[in-house]
């Protein structure tokens, strides 16, 4: 054990809430801003999550066009439901739940 060079663990609240690469901003931060009506935060969330949401939609549908429709509906649902999101370690799970058509 190297006692002289111990590293402190990353703060749980930041590492657990999906800090976006190169931004220092978390999905929690963006979802809270979206709940307050920020279109800029919505665009940033979309930019960072669309590939994953599309992949989930492709798995759930039978065609790329159906997946695209599901993605569009998912982001409408995210915009409308952001006020129901409660910050925590599961932001991406909440986003994917919206892709599957879930409530809050």
Task: Describe this protein's structure.
The chain has 104 residues and is mainly alpha-helical. Helix content is 60%, strand content 0%. It contains 5 helices and no strands. The chain has helices at residues 12-15, 27-35, 39-60, 64-81, 91-99. Helix 2 packs across helix 3, helix 3 (39-60) packs across helix 4 (64-81) and helix 4 packs across helix 5. The protein is globular and about 35 Å long. Mean pLDDT is 80; it is low at 1-16.
What coarse outline follows from CA principal-axis ratios?
globular
The poorly predicted ranges are 1-16
- CA radius of gyration is 16 Å
The average pLDDT score comes to: 80
β-strand amount: under 5%
Count of DSSP strands: 0
Query: What structural class results from the helix and strand content?
Result: mainly alpha
> Could you estimate the helical fraction of the residues in percent?
55-70%
For the record, give the distance between the C-alpha atoms at the N and C termini, rounded to a whole number: 45 Å
Largest sheet: none
Q: Compute the number of helices.
A: 5
Order of helices and strands: HHHHH
Topology (elements, then pairings):
Layout: H1 12-15, H2 27-35, H3 39-60, H4 64-81, H5 91-99
Helix pairs in contact: 2-3, 3-4, 3-5, 4-5
Task: Describe the structure concisely.
The chain has helices spanning 12-15, 27-35, 39-60, 64-81, 91-99.
């Amino acid at each position: 054990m190297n006692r002289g060079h111990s590293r402190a663990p990353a703060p749980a609240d930041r590492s657990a809430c999906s800090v976006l690469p190169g931004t220092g901003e978390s999905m929690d931060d963006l979802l809270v801003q979206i709940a307050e009506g920020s279109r800029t935060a919505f665009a940033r969330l979309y930019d960072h999550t669309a590939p994953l949401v599309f992949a989930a939609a492709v798995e759930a549908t039978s065609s790329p066009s159906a997946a695209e429709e599901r993605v569009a509906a998912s982001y409408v649902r995210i915009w409308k439901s952001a006020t129901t999101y409660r910050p925590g370690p599961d932001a991406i799970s909440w986003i994917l739940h919206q892709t599957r058509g879930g409530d809050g």
